[in-house]
Amino acid sequence: MSDEKEIVIDLLREVLGHEKAHYDLKCQITFDCPVCSYEIKQLDHGDGKGNLEINYCRHIYKCWSCGETHNTQGPLGKLFDQFGNKQIKKTYELLKPEDEKYVAKRLQVKLPLGYKKFSESNPRYIPHIEAKRYLNQRGVTDEIIERYRIGYTTEGDFAFRIIIPSYDNEGELNYFIARSWVPKKMKYKNPTIPKETIIFNEFNIDFSKDIYLVEGAFDMLFLENSIPLLGKKVSPLLFERLYNESQGEIHICLDGDAWTDAQKLFHELNGGRLYGKIKIIRPPKDQDVCDLKGDISEYYVNLMK
Ligand SMILES: [Zn+2]
C-alpha cells in the first residue's frame, strides 16, 4: 500500500476511531457513522454498526443508514471538513485528488424526473404500452427489463424516453441512457456528466470472467458481462481497469459498420499482459449485437495470424 493511502487511513482513524472492517484490495474501510451515533442516536460512543463506508482510493464516503436522509455521503474532503480538526484538514488538503470535483459530480447523477420502472407503472397507461412495445420489438424481454431496472418517463427533459440506468460497483447510480421511443431529432439524450468518468454497468461486471465490449446500452442487454462503451472507443479509465483487473478474455463486439474502429481497438488492447487475450467479432455490416440478440458465436475473426 502506498504511503498516501496509509496517511489517509491514519487520518480517518484519528477522526472516527478504530475501523470495523477493512478490505484493502478494494480500498474499503468502515467505521461507526458519527452522524448516526452522535447526532441521530445521541450516544456518547459509536453505535457499533459500522455503517460508514469509505473508499480511500476513490476518496468518497457514504453511510448506508443515514447517507440519503442526512446527506452523509460525498467526497472525503467533506467528511474531514465536518469532523476533522484544523491539522487534519490541512494534511488531507495535500493528499486529496485533483479531480475531487469529478467524484463529487459523479455522485450527483440522479434518475430523470418522473422515472418509473415498468413493474411499478400502470400497464394500461398509453406511454407505458408504447414504450414497452418498442422494447419488445427490439427483443428486450420483461425479464431483461426487470433485471436492468429499465423504466421510462413522460416528464421533464427526458420525457418520452426509455431509461436504462447504470450502477457503479457500490450499487450507486453512475449514469443512465435515455432513448426516445417516438421519432425525435435526438434518439439518445444522456446525463451531462462526462461519460469517460464512469464505467457503464460496472455493478454487474465480473472482472475475473470474460468481458464483452459493446457499443451501446441496448447491446449490453443481450450479452452477459458486457460493458457498453457508449461509443467506439475505450476511455483511459476503462483501459486501466481492463489492463489491471481483467482475468479472462476480452471480446470486442462493435457494430457491423464499425469494423475499422473495432480493429483499431483490438491493436490498442492486445499488448502487455493482455496480449493474446483479445477476441474480436465482425458482424454483418448492417447489424449489431442487439440485432443478433447476442448470438455472436459465428462472427469471430482471428486477427492474430
Ligand atoms: Zn450514518
Would you write up a description of this structure?
There is one protein chain. By secondary structure, the chain is an alpha+beta fold. Helix content is 29%, strand content 19%. The strands form three sheets. A five-stranded antiparallel sheet has the order 1-2-3-4-5. The longest helix has 14 residues. The chain is globular and about 65 Å long. 33% of the residues are buried. The model has no long low-confidence stretch (mean pLDDT 92). Bound molecules: zinc ion. The site of zinc ion has 8 residues, from helix 2.
What are the main properties of this structure?
single chain, 305 residues, alpha+beta, five-stranded antiparallel β-sheet
Order of helices and strands: HEEHEEEHHHEHHEEEEEHEHEHEE
Q: What is the quaternary state of this protein?
A: single chain
**How many helix segments?**
10
Overall pLDDT level: 92
- The 3D shape can be described as globular
Which value, in Å, is the CA radius of gyration?
A: 22 Å
Strand arrangement, largest sheet? 1-2-3-4-5
Reported for the largest beta sheet, the result is: 5 strands, antiparallel
pLDDT < 50 runs, ≥5 residues: none
Ligand identities: zinc ion
